[in-house]
Amino acid sequence: MSILEVNFDGLIGPTHNYSGLSFGNLASERNAQLRSNPKAAALQGLAKMRQLLSLGYQQGFIPPQQRPQLDSMRQLGFTGSDQQIIQQLAKQNPRLLSMVYSASPMWAANAATVTPSTDSGDGRVHFTPANLLTTPHRAIEAEATQHTLATIFNDPQHFKIHAPLPANNLFADEGAANHSRLCQHYGDPGVAMFVYGRDGLDSANQPARFPARQTRLASEAVARSHGLTAQQAVFCRQHPTAIDAGAFHNDVVAVANGPVLFFHQLAFVDKDFETIKQQLGNKLNLQLLPVNHQEVPLEDAIKSYLFNSQLLAAPDGDMTNMRLIAPSECAQNKSVSAYLERLLQDHQQPIRSVDFVDVRQSMSNGGGPACLRLRVVLNAQQRAAVNPAFLITEDRITALEDWVKQHYRDQLAPEDLADPAFYTESLETLEALTQLLNLKNFYPFQSH
Fold this sequence. Notes:
By secondary structure, the chain is an alpha/beta fold. The chain is built from 18 helices and 15 strands. It has a three-stranded mixed beta sheet, sandwiched between helices.
């Protein structure tokens, strides 16, 4: 088929570290201040890309952002050279230092919300970078994400890159981690399913333990700006119980592709979901794959990231021959492993195989296989218009692996962030990446 889904994975950056900055993300909090392994993290991500490429899927990548990101600190009154600001942060507020060194843009599912040209109304693929304003270490990503998307999808005839939504609590937007597109086939008109944790104006029915990050007002704004009609967008509230259990994004408890919605019993508020089912049932032949709480307890689903697996159609877009790319933790969890065995024995549903991938470094910081990728549905002309520097081939993966092996550290401790040598090392690593990709002045430090 000429219209296919391309996964653009976040390339894990050299400052990958465990700072525990993401309140509500249990893995992030559990592993805070442990030593990380940036080299292993990046190689694990590239190995996943290679695996999908070998299976016949089209694959791209999103480069890491510049870290440390010190512009935000200058706005807060810190002055001096970059190295001097780093030393000030290390002495006065190490948590701010962790923030500006965060490698969280690796989780490309939060990069943006994407609407394909079949749905947008103007024949272009639309992107809205997420403002991510509920977590300070991620809110500093939005401007760079917009620049990156405009570099990858750089043909305005085919692509429209919107600005992030206003940085206002009413319009808190977490990107594709709370958005799914349901359709019969990629080339058919689809329905965008937006999942939110809070309305924005109404403070009722909030989670008791952790914040609800996505607002309905933000989702509605993205739908409007992407040209979606009332018939093309549905809105559903994430269950507060799921958020309080650690499902900080909906993609921790649900994943969809084509006509298939694979979800935990406690993923959605019941009354909202019943309305959604009726709306979607009138538009497409929806295939629901609910997982009962008794089969897989919510805690097991979140700990294993079962629903943060990548749900893929066949490489040619066949929705009857689907594949689940699951974290290896799913094979090690008793209830999840048993469930997956039963799932594959049920030939009434379309998932025909489960492939396990090792992304432990990402998982330890709270992101599974689906967190690492942004899904973009493209026709042949649009795929040809993508900046080729960001499309994956076997040779490109090998070159990126060599770059990682040459420049990344095996171990990174929290105190290393204060080391001026690490600052220099981080920028030199990104400089080498732009040379590899033949990009000029991509990062802010390169234009100074």
